[in-house]
From TrEMBL, chain A:
Enzyme Commission no: 1.13.11.8
Keyword Membrane: no
Domain Extradiol ring-cleavage dioxygenase class III enzyme subunit B residues, every copy: 8-274
Pfam families membership: LigB
Presence of keyword Oxidoreductase: yes
Enzyme class: oxidoreductase
Annotated TM spans: none
Lineage top rank: taxon: Bacteria
InterPro entries, A to Z: Xdiol_dOase_suB (IPR004183)
Protein name: Protocatechuate 4,5-dioxygenase beta chain
GO molecular function, one term: ferrous iron binding
Organism: Thalassovita gelatinovora (Thalassobius gelatinovorus)
Keywords: Dioxygenase, Oxidoreductase
TrEMBL record, chain B:
EC number of this enzyme: 1.13.11.8
GO MF entry, a single one: protocatechuate 4,5-dioxygenase activity
Organism (species): Thalassovita gelatinovora
Domain Extradiol ring-cleavage dioxygenase LigAB LigA subunit: 26-111
Signal peptide, first to last residue: none
Family annotation (Gene3D superfamilies): Dioxygenase LigAB, LigA subunit
Protein keywords: Dioxygenase, Oxidoreductase
Name the UniProt record assigns to this protein: Protocatechuate 4,5-dioxygenase alpha chain
Enzymatic class: oxidoreductase
Keyword Cytoplasm: no
Length: 283, 130
């Protein structure tokens, strides 16, 4: 049977991708950001996934204002890294896992979560940056270590789905993956955040204390994390901090009690607080 | 229109359905700049290129002026307007600095020292006291 063995929370700041793509990760500005992923890269080698289910948001790249799905599941054979306005990232094409993706779509929709199914989709830094920080530099003509199933969540136009809805969707994804007959080691990623505001006069807002409490809750008290209101996210963590609802999808797909094996937090990467956590299921 | 709880957050435009409706063509114009051929067309003849999108005169003027906050006020969303900034060769961090009215170096320095604190920045009433 397929099994979710671990959940990964991870920011997806575009500048992190640029730093890797231009080879400046050793500069003093970036060194502390990447230091926190050294453990993770080793951990990924020791706990190699067969498939990654990656929850992220599209930043007005694959979806323009004409179509705004709340949850869009990538069921394509492959996903091309998009040109976001400065040329596509020089990273490999992301291969999907079509059989598992369509199984999840069927199971989750019958479980009353009405997903949008994407049979063609480009992916932006929201998806490729977490893969890059976890697996290191991979040349464009190389390959990511395993297939990836993307789930794009609308967090651009208010309202994003609630933290509670995301958490419950995670549970439905867990049920879907648990019922897939092939033996597969699945990792689930919740990406985005942590505190940041990219717009208007309050841009640059960071709330390290709140972020720390959120990491604690994600690890040990998801029941509390899923009750965080949109107003709290917006006010306390900046208008773009609401991306953290996506971590709740990841957390919902794990056991109630998990083991935290790694945590990393650093300010800043560009305008954003970088947060990262690895949680393992027990059995 | 009903009062929105998030309208009390200072220095912030929450991109909700009302803003999205108002900013639709502005945002569609901005996202078109994601593609190289459109960037070229806009560079060659900005006025002609803007006529392809049903923006209001005020929105077009804000594009000409690169009035970054006003673009948000007119329904623009930051992930869209950042494509226009990117067209100009402005990084996201420098764009953020411009919107706060801070000098580039001062903004960068603020971020290196932990960013803008949430203290004093939660509610419009806190800004009015300043």
């Amino acid at each position: 049977m397929a099994k979710i063995t671990a959940g990964i929370g991870c920011s997806h700041v575009p500048a992190i991708g640029v730093a890797m793509d231009t080879g400046i990760t050793e500069q003093p500005y970036w060194q502390p950001v990447f230091k926190g992923f050294e453990f993770s890269r080793k951990w990924c080698k020791d706990n190699k996934p067969d498939v990654i289910f990656l929850v992220y948001n599209d930043h007005c790249t694959a979806f323009d204002a004409s179509c705004i799905p709340t949850f869009a599941l990538g069921c394509a054979a492959e996903f091309t890294p998009a040109d976001e306005g400065w040329g596509p990232r020089p990273v490999p094409v992301v291969k999907g896992h079509q059989k598992l993706a369509s199984h999840i779509a069927q199971s989750v929709i019958l479980d009353e979560f009405d997903l949008t199914i994407m049979n063609e989709m480009e992916v932006d830094h929201g998806l490729t940056v977490p893969l890059s920080v976890m697996f290191g530099e991979i040349p464009q003509d190389g390959a990511w270590p395993c297939p990836v199933i993307p789930l794009a969540v609308n967090v651009v136009q208010y309202p994003a789905p609630t933290a509670n809805r995301c958490y419950n969707l995670g549970k439905a994804i867990r049920r879907a993956i648990d019922s897939y007959p092939e033996d597969l080691n699945v990792h689930i990623y919740g990406t985005g955040g942590m505190s940041h505001q990219l717009q208007a006069e309050r841009a640059g807002l960071i709330n390290a204390e709140w972020d720390g409490r959120f990491l604690d809750m994600i690890a040990n008290d998801p029941d509390k994390a899923r009750q965080i209101s949109h107003l709290e996210f917006l006010r306390e963590t900046g208008s773009e901090g609401i991306e953290m609802v996506m971590w709740l999808v990841m957390r919902g797909a794990l056991d109630d009690k998990v083991t935290e094996v790694h945590r990393h937090y650093h300010v800043p990467a560009s305008n954003t607080a970088v947060g990262h956590i690895i949680l393992e299921n027990h059995d | 229109m009903a009062e929105k709880d998030y309208d009390d957050i200072p220095g912030t435009f929450v991109f909700d359905a009302d803003r999205s409706r108002e900013g639709y063509w502005l945002n569609q114009f901005c996202i078109s700049l994601r593609l190289a051929k459109n960037r070229e067309a806009f560079r060659d003849d900005p006025e002609e290129y803007m006529t392809r999108y049903a923006m209001t005169d005020e929105q077009k003027q804000a594009v000409r002026d690169r009035a970054w906050n006003h673009l948000l006020e007119l329904g623009g969303n930051i992930y869209y307007t950042s494509k226009l900034a990117s067209f100009d060769g402005i990084t996201f961090q420098d764009l953020a600095a411009k919107m706060t009215g801070m000098a580039r170096e001062d903004y960068r320095d603020m971020m290196l020292h932990g960013g803008r604190s949430v203290e004093g920045n939660r509610s419009k009433s806190e800004w009015e006291k300043k």
